[in-house]
Write a structure and sequence with these properties.
Layout: E1 4-9, E2 13-18, H1 19-22, H2 32-41, E3 48-51, H3 57-64, E4 71-74, H4 81-90, E5 97-99, E6 102-103, E7 150-151, E8 163-166, H5 172-177, H6 180-186, E9 189-194, H7 196-203, H8 207-216, E10 219-226, E11 230-236
Parallel strand pairs: 3-4, 3-8, 4-5, 6-7, 8-9
Antiparallel strand pairs: 1-2, 9-11, 10-11
């Protein structure tokens, strides 16, 4: 049985997290600039596409800022899903949808389950029913190609998206290259945590490549801060 404790994230947002997460010292200062910018940009009616949900703690904070069931969770790693569901359940939150996929600039055609809305499926992935693991790992775009599908954002079955938040350990360029239609049609505000080292090592792209691509899509880039990664906000030009 996982024990939950009360956590006041950045001394602003009360949440309930598992003890092994909630006792980490980071919650007094975690990504302050990024989270403050997101809080001021997100409106209660917005639909958030959360790419790289990880263990679900930050995503639960984002979900608490909007009306119920207004966040879509995207996370490839099966080990994270039991923790994500537990955190959402404990905080009385429910996502609009869940996708256990990696996002990129190509879609594996054999995985149409994830991209067609006429296929009935459960809200939570099956892996969410597994036991919670205290130690989990990230999953990159080019890992486990035979077990975890790669999907373009443009080919996912999505409603109108108002906010995209992305923290995917180096695959930021590929993910947004596969979201051109959503970016041009919905004009969401995009928050990206850029990992320059992983970005170059895995895909030979740089932050400048990402910024130039977003400018071609009609977005202005603003640098927010650097802690363990670079935090950027991309806003659509009028």
């Amino acid at each position: 049985m996982t024990e939950f404790i009360d956590v006041n994230v950045n001394d602003k947002w009360p949440m309930k997290f598992p003890r092994h997460i909630g006792e980490l010292p980071m919650w007094k200062f975690w990504e302050k600039e990024r989270m403050a910018a997101m809080y001021h940009a997100i409106r209660p009616d917005d639909v958030i596409l959360d790419i790289g949900t990880c263990n679900g703690d930050m995503s639960a904070v984002f979900a608490s800022w909007v009306k119920p069931a207004q966040i879509i969770l995207v996370e490839p790693s099966p080990d994270f899903w039991p923790l994500i569901k537990a955190i959402f359940d404990e905080n009385g939150l429910k996502p609009l949808d869940c996708y256990q996929v990696v996002v990129g600039d190509k879609t594996d055609p054999s995985f149409d389950y994830y991209i067609h809305g006429d296929i009935e499926r459960e809200l939570w992935p099956k892996d969410s029913e597994n036991e919670i693991k205290l130690e989990t790992g990230f999953m990159h775009l080019n890992e486990h190609p035979d077990s975890i599908p790669a999907v373009r954002i443009d080919e996912m079955y999505l409603p109108k998206i108002d906010i995209i938040t992305m923290d995917i350990e180096g695959s930021e360029y590929e993910a947004l290259a596969g979201a051109e239609e959503v970016l041009l049609k919905d004009r969401p505000i995009v928050f990206v945590s850029i990992h320059p080292e992983f970005m170059w090592r895995e895909h030979h792209h740089s932050p400048d490549d990402l910024i130039h691509m977003m400018q071609k899509f009609g977005y202005d880039a603003t640098y927010l801060a650097f802690d363990h990664e670079q935090h950027w906000i991309f806003k659509p030009k009028p």
